Amino acid sequence: MSPSGHDEDAADVLAGRAQWISLLCEALPRALLAELGLARVLLGSSGGAQFLLVLPDEARGPAQQFLTAAAHDVDRLSNGHLQLLWGITENLGDWSVVRKRLGESLQRWRGTPLATATAGAPAGRVRR
Length: 128
Known about the structure:
single chain; 4 helices
C-alpha cells in the first residue's frame, strides 16, 4: 500500500485500500486451497476481512507455511500497516465452541504483537 499523495483524494485512497483488503480475503483462502490441492468446498466463508477454511489435519503444516509466507507478503506490501493473523483449532464440538476457540487463538496474537516478528503468525484475519 502506497502512501497517499498530495494530489490524491483521501476518500479514493481509503476506498482503494478497503478494496485491496476485501480482495485479499477472497483470493488468499482460494489460493491456499489450490496450493494444497484441496476442494474449494472447504472454504466455509470469506469476507469482512476474515475467512474460514475447514482443512484436514494433514494440511495443517503446509497451511501454516503458506499463511506464514502470505503474512510476510502482506506486511511487506502494506509497509507494515497490516497483519495477517489466523487461528487453528480442531473441528470438535458445537460451532459456538469452535468459534470460541478460534477467537481465543486470534486474541493471543492480538495480545502479543511482537510474536509475528519472531514466528509465523497462527482461520485468517487481516488486522488493520
